[in-house]
Write a structure and sequence with these properties.
about 210 residues; mainly alpha; Rossmann fold; three-stranded parallel beta sheet
Length: about 210
């Protein structure tokens, strides 16, 4: 759902049912707007700065000017609720700072992934070794991004063997199984190792086969 649709639905709801409105109805729309930044981050590369900036600016502007929009349509907080004199500061400060923090975190992570993809595109790298031992819990959005965008693109550019390092007891087991299944369906192979030396040996065995075919 687009940011414009979210705001429009919120305005309509407040116009039609003003007696049911409370402060939560002015906060939930902000959470939805923050969530909409995920879609552009999943489908647009960081290098496409104008396109990515344009897509993100819609949700950002809606979030910044949300109260002004509500006031224009006569459904502002102080029109329908007016139960907290500090509403403007609390609602906008926390939502905007959350938006900025999440956006910067996603940009940092996406930039790393995009650089990896750029390397695969440039050199058509058939082998890849990645250390995930310090990786925390992977969000649902990031899982979808990896499975639906990163893996298909990398494999289409020639990536065939992927070795990932993790530690025993590390979370995301379901995510690792999903990645393995997706990779196999796409015609590549991925293995997970708890020992870096074994991971390197696994990749080296394929490199030797390519360099010195029997």
């Amino acid at each position: 759902m687009s940011p414009l649709t979210i705001v429009a639905m919120s305005v309509v709801n407040k116009r039609l049912y003003p007696e049911t409105i409370n402060v939560i109805n002015y906060l939930d729309v902000r959470f939805f707007l923050i969530a909409t930044m995920v879609i552009p981050m999943m489908v647009i590369q960081v290098m496409e700065k104008i396109l990515l900036g344009s897509a993100l600016s819609v949700s950002a502007l809606m979030l910044i000017f949300l109260d002004l929009i509500f006031n224009i349509f006569g459904v502002g907080h102080f029109d329908l609720v007016n139960d907290n004199p500090h509403y403007y500061f609390m609602a906008n400060f926390y939502s905007i700072t959350s938006y900025v923090f999440i956006l910067l975190s996603l940009l940092f992570e996406k930039n790393l992934s995009d650089k990896g993809l750029d390397m695969v595109r440039l050199y058509h790298t058939p082998f890849w070794l990645s250390d995930l031992s310090k990786q925390g819990i992977v969000s649902t959005e990031d899982q979808k991004w990896m499975v639906n965008t990163i893996l298909p693109e990398a494999i289409s550019q020639g990536l065939r063997k992927i070795a990932n390092i993790y530690y025993d007891g590390q979370p995301n087991e379901d995510y690792r199984n999903r990645i393995k299944e997706t990779t196999l369906k796409l015609g590549a192979e991925i293995e997970f190792f708890t020992d870096r030396k074994r991971a390197e040996e696994w990749v080296d065995s394929f490199i030797e086969t390519v360099v010195n075919p029997i």
